[in-house]
Design goal:
This protein is mostly helical. The chain has five helices and no strands. The chain is elongated. The protein starts with a helix and ends in a 10-residue tail after the last helix.
Length: 86
């Protein structure tokens, strides 16, 4: 939601443009809002979140990706085994 307020044309954004006419100051405000909205994750938390999201994907996506990887490997004569999903 905060992203929409900052990057889409909204009533809120038009009000801010009228209240703060300077691009420099609007960009500073946008940067501050972005930094406040950012959440810091530890590497362990990020890895856990990534694994959780990957497990939710249907198996057909991994099958398709593996097939594309094999095709690219054949065309390029590169070893792309690290790109394969189990």
């Amino acid at each position: 939601m905060v992203r929409d307020l900052l990057y889409k044309e909204t009533f809120f954004k038009k009000i801010i443009k009228l209240a703060v006419p300077s691009d420099k100051w609007r960009n500073k405000i946008k940067g501050k809002v972005n930094s406040l909205n950012s959440t810091n994750y530890s590497n362990e938390e990020s890895r856990h979140e990534l694994v959780k999201n990957i497990k939710m994907l249907p198996k057909e996506y991994f099958n398709w990706s593996n097939k594309q990887t094999r095709n690219l490997s054949e065309i390029s004569n590169l070893n792309l085994d690290d790109w394969m999903y189990d």
